[in-house]
Amino acid sequence: MLAVIRRRPSIFVVTLAADVVADLLASGIKDAVPRARPHVSHLIPVPASHSFPSGHSATAFACATVLAAAEPRWRVAFFVLAAAIAYSRLYNGVHYPLDVLGGAVLGVLVALTALRLLAARRRGSRRGWRTG
Questions:
Q1: Cα–Cα distance between 51 and 72 in angstroms, integer?
Q2: Are 122 and 26 in contact (CB under 8 A)?
């Protein structure tokens, strides 16, 4: 919605890219780190994948970081929503706190990288370089 309201498709593209990359990296790390999920009463079906890092936290924080950069006045709301998503993974008993923290850090790092790449591309375009 923000991309449509602001008439900046790059917001959508960078948010989607950060979301997809964060999800792929979280899945790859889960394959490499065989951490079992918590053994607690689950409110939702237990996912079959390993626990670390939380993919939901990674994607939520990746999107929140990109959107906060695009619309700084709403940054608190974006991060509160991401934190609520991350907390839901603890509440539902499918992640440990460090899984959620690891996912959040991963998501923020992915988003910051995506934003730096976008900024570098824009600087290159202003200098007359072909950026693809």
A1: 32
A2: no
pLDDT tens by residue, 36-65: 888 776 778 888 888 899 999 999 999 999
Contact 93, 42 (CB under 8 A): yes
Cα separation, 48 vs 115, whole angstroms: 32
Task: Answer yes or no: are the C-beta atoms of 82 and 60 closer than 8 Å.
Answer: yes
Burial label for 125, CB within 10 Å (0-12, 13-18, 19+), is exposed
Read off the pLDDT of residues 59-90 as tens digits, 9 standing for 90 and up: 999 999 999 999 999 999 999 999 999 999 99
User: Distances from the Cα of 89 to the Cαs of 8, 34, 102, 108, in angstroms?
Assistant: 32, 18, 13, 18
Give the Cα separation of 131 and 66 in Å (integer).
21
Phi–psi pair at 30, nearest 5 degrees: -60, -40
Distance, in Å, from the CA atom of 42 to the CA atom of 13, rounded to the nearest integer, reads 35
Domain ranges of the chain: 13-35+50-126
Q: Compute the distance between CA of residue 12 and CA of residue 50 in angstroms, rounded to an integer.
A: 30
